[in-house]
Amino acid sequence: MWAGQEGVNGQEMNGFLLGWVAFAIALGTGAIWFRRAYAVNLPENRGGFVAAMVAATSIGIIAFVEGAGWVGGIPAGIAILIGCFLLLTVAVSEQKGGTGQFQLGQPVPEFTAPDENGEPFEIASLIGNPLLLKFFRGHW
After folding, report:
1. For a Cys-Cys bond, which of 22, 35, 51, 58 suits 79, CB 3.0-4.6 Å?
2. Which residue(s) pair with 121 in the sheet?
3. Cβ neighbours for 71, distance < 8 A, ≥ 6 positions apart
């Protein structure tokens, strides 16, 4: 028992420890996820990430049920937020290619998209000019 912790019972200590375990799992998983997302190297099978995020969120909730107190409750709450946020990013991050994918050296299909001013831009206006199209693929 720590100095000044005479009133802490076993259940509060369990909640305290669980809160910090949940925080460590969520922080570690989040760091790995965002490092891989930044490197555009997310795995096709994200089951391990999902399992770790569900574990962190669940352990954080259990920490509150066990009575984590302030010192264990704050990291447990942060773990729940991180876990839920990362689960959301996994849910929306998968992007599938459409049937009309662009191929290098092939003519670009006709399309219209908004330009930087929100005005419609038609790709046909560039016929006869070299063109480089760059599409940003977000991972969140």
Report:
1. 22
2. 113
3. 16, 19
How does pLDDT run across 65-103, given as a tens digit for each residue? 888 788 888 999 999 999 998 888 878 766 555 555 666
This prediction has a pTM of 0.60
Percent of the chain predicted with pLDDT > 70:
78
Buried b (16+ CB within 10 A) or exposed e, 93-108: beeeeeeeeeeeeeee
d(CA 130, CA 55): 51
Residue with the two structure tokens 């929306």: 92
Instruction: Choose among 95, 97, 83, 96: nearest CA to 33.
Output: 83
